[in-house]
Design goal:
This protein has one helix at 49-62, and strands spanning 2-5, 16-18, 24-27, 32-34, 66-69, 72-74, 77-81, 85-87, 91-92, 97-101, 108-119, 121-124, 130-132, 136-165, 172-190. The protein is mostly beta strands. Strand 2 (16-18) and strand 3 form a beta hairpin.
């Protein structure tokens, strides 16, 4: 389903389609978005990194997390991947964007090489202060050959995860202050 807007929004190859007479058709996506809608192969052969980034950008721009009252927020979204993914670059989570697989044993995010697979660390600002993402969840998947680095965050959920790092790097790294973060059923295997 698409909805019409008179705004001229850059055509992104399927989720915003600019017309020749002005205006744009925008895809009307649900809160939970299947990564395959953005072109992911989910075949563990071709990299899905660029599709995860496209999907995150869509959620971040079109469904920004907004504080509506006393810490209650609306917006954001979930990137759902029903099958396994191959990533070749680190996924830097954006505010309000969560990752959810189909199951802890049936969905695998496989890192192409030894690397930090998922992080909320987004560098430093101009004053040297760390920039991190908050308000996200990681649920129902395995990450293999990579690790998860989470820095100073709040309002996060880590549930039904298996982190399998067989190359000697720390598998799940928490760094800094954590407020209102929940960890449920997380298994870490580091060899």
């Amino acid at each position: 389903n698409y909805k019409w807007t008179s705004a001229d929004i850059l055509d992104d190859g399927g989720y915003s389609i600019q017309t020749t007479k002005g205006g744009t058709w925008l895809a009307d996506l649900d809160y939970i978005i299947d990564i395959r809608h953005f072109g992911a192969n989910c075949d563990l052969i071709n990299s899905d990194s660029v599709f995860i980034e496209k999907c995150q950008n869509y959620i971040f721009i079109n469904r920004p997390l907004i504080n509506i009252s006393a810490g209650n927020e609306k917006g954001g979204g979930v990137i759902y991947f029903p099958k396994s993914l191959l990533i070749t670059q680190t996924i830097v989570l954006k505010k309000g964007v969560s990752l959810q697989g189909n199951s802890k044993i049936g969905t695998n995010i496989h890192c192409y090489e030894q690397m930090i697979g998922i992080t909320n660390f987004d560098g430093y600002d101009e004053n040297g202060v760390i920039k991190t993402t908050n308000n996200f969840s990681l649920k129902d998947f395995v990450i293999s050959q990579g690790s998860i680095l989470i820095s100073a965050t709040y309002n996060c959920l880590f549930e039904n995860l298996r982190v399998m790092n067989i190359v000697g790097r720390d598998a799940f790294i928490f760094d800094g202050l954590f407020v209102d973060c929940k960890i449920k059923n997380v298994h870490i295997i580091s060899c």
